[in-house]
Amino acid sequence: MPMERPIIEVRHLRKEYPAADETVVALDGIDLAIPRGQICCVYGESGSGKSTLLNQLAGMEKPTRGGVRIGGTVISRLDERELAAFRQRHLGFVFQSYNLLPNLTAVENVAMPLMFRGVPKTQREKAARGMLRRVGLGKRLNHYPTQMSGGQQQRVGIARAFVARPQVVFADEPTGNLDSKTKIDVMEMIVSFARALDQTIVLVTHDDNMAAYADRVVTLLDGRIIDDRPVAAVPASTQGASR
């Protein structure tokens, strides 16, 4: 049988930014293939290029050269309208700062991706309530973000990211604002959903402990991939706490 094509393919990706009298190279010739169902960690310190790479993968910015293909679609060639529609159909996001709409309840926030897909209100809110119960927020369905702790808000963010069962979920420093116990809860929740639904996760972090939850760690430095290996093969000093 032929091998399945990777869900994410990055070819010769370069991103430059003009700065005063010079050009800053944020990504310099990135080649990367991520199989379907893999939890891939993009790891690196501040300024390594990992956030820029995430923006490229999610279609938030256009590359200077090269391209990104997700599920057979070259997203770097799409216009803004096409990109918005593609993200709504195929991608989910978990953010460090939660990015919940403050004037919406937990149920309404989680139901938002389904609204963009045209799912009727009764159906999407039923699905949202089910997801919130799965992340342990069954008693917070009608609470607003300001009525919840940081950990609870991130659980809402996770429920929102997975409710529409997207092909790929991007998790951008998802535990950056959380205490150590809540970090573990959040990562275990993300991994659990990904395994159950056979979804691909791209986790961006500079935290060794969070990288240890991935199947694979791709390390960036100065806009280049300097290491790419399965977590089992990552030195113990980079794996952090055991899973």
Question: What fraction, in percent, of the residue positions are helical?
Answer: 25-40%
Main sheet attributes: strand count, strand direction, barrel closure: 6 strands, mixed
Structural class of the secondary elements? alpha/beta
Report the end-to-end length measured between terminal Cα atoms. 34 Å
Determine the strand fraction and express it as a percent band: 25-35%
Task: Please identify the top-level CATH class.
Answer: Alpha Beta
Order of helices and strands: EEEHEEHEHHHEHEHEEH
What is the approximate shape?
globular
Structurally, how many domains make up the residues? Answer: 1
Number of helices: 8
**Largest sheet, order of strands side by side?**
6-7-8-3-9-10
Q: Quick one: how many beta strands?
A: 10
Radius of gyration: 18 Å
CATH homologous superfamily, by name?
P-loop containing nucleotide triphosphate hydrolases
Uncertain regions spanning at least 5 consecutive residues: 234-243
CATH fold topology: Rossmann fold
Query: What does the average pLDDT come to?
Result: 91
CATH architecture term: 3-Layer(aba) Sandwich
